Amino acid sequence: MKIEIWSDVVCPFCYIGKRKLEKAIEKLSFKDKVEVEWKSFQLNPDQKTNPSINTLEHLSESKGWSMKQTLEITSNVVNMAAAQGLVFDFEKAVVANTRNAHRLIHLAKESGKGDAMKERLLSAYFSEGKNVDDFATLISLGKEVGLKEENIKAMLETDQFDEAVDQDIYESRQIGVKGVPFFVLDGKFGISGAQPDEVFDQTLEKAWAEFAKSNPIFDMAGNSEGESCDVDGENCL
Predict the structure, then answer these.
(1) Could you tell me if residue 218 is left (phi over 0), alpha (psi between -120 and 50 degrees) or otherwise beta?
(2) Average pLDDT, integer, range 77-104
(3) Is 28 in contact with 204 (CB distance < 8 Å)?
């Protein structure tokens, strides 16, 4: 059974939602029959990479928040992440355009390393303060998950996977994605946002029941809303 996930590398709820999904899958007796595919989505495709300021400063400036407001809001998200075993450090996070990171994930998907690449990029951005638009950084991260340096360089120096990124974004519009993360299970069941754990548990069970009916070799419900980053970034933080 396939689970498709539209997600951005700099969306905090995408990382939190990833952990929630993984925990739900781990409980399943059929977990080895679940395939996860990451789909590209850019919350701000026009974002200029700017290593000179951190994400806290960027949020304060772009949203018109005081630094006190910014720290209060991000603290809530940090606590949500901690509940999933994640460490977020917005003070170190580098403001970056994510298109090249998404292209790197597509490259990794060709060798079955898409999930590992997604995880590494999320950790690099949220926990380690790495610039996920910097070529040297992307090459290093890609090598860590087993990609060949020459293949990463060739991709970054060309427009390879640009169309794949655009296709993912086009598909998200076709199915009405308004915010990320957005999970589509078996092409029929949708989960929008980092929902409570029980939503992932219940939806996975329902999706598997439908999948098993159509695939006897193994013995669209409505979408619900959870914490997410919307397309204009207004509700992200």
Answers:
(1) beta
(2) 97
(3) yes
Q: Report which of 230, 143, 221 is spatially closest to residue 178, judged by C-alpha positions.
A: 230
pLDDT tens per residue, range 175-216: 999 899 999 999 999 999 999 999 999 999 999 988 888 876
Helix (H) and strand (E) counts in the chain? 9, 9
| pLDDT tens-digit map of 153-180 | 999 999 999 999 999 999 999 999 989 9
Three-class SS state of 136: helix
Q: How far apart are CA 121 and CA 63, in angstroms?
A: 25
Under DSSP, is residue 168 helix (H, G, I), strand (E, B) or coil? helix
For 177-208, give one letter per residue: b (16+ CB within 10 A) or e: bbbbbbbbbbeebbbbbbbeeebbbebbeebb
CA 38, 177, 83, 3 torsion: positive or negative? negative
Q: Which residues of 82-104 are buried (b: 16+ CB within 10 A; e: fewer)?
A: eebebebbbeebbbbbbbbbbbb
